[in-house]
Write a structure and sequence with these properties.
68 residues, mainly alpha, 434 Repressor (Amino-terminal Domain), two-stranded antiparallel ribbon, 56% helix, Cro/C1-type_HTH, Putative transcriptional regulator, Lambda_DNA-bd_dom_sf, DNA-binding
Amino acid sequence: MKSKIQEMRKKKKISQEELAMAVGVTRQTITSLECEKYTASLILAYKIAKYFETTIEDIFDFSDVEEI
């Protein structure tokens, strides 16, 4: 699952640390999300989307997720 977190974060001119604090995770978690080493939980994805005032679908690309 790809994300636009880094792109949106840079557009808003905030650091990984600032985003992490705003959504209640560590900077390392934000780094892992941006490097696609970690997949956000639904709750974390919601918090990130709410922070950026957008939808989860606008941040995360689910095109590579296998259907059930």
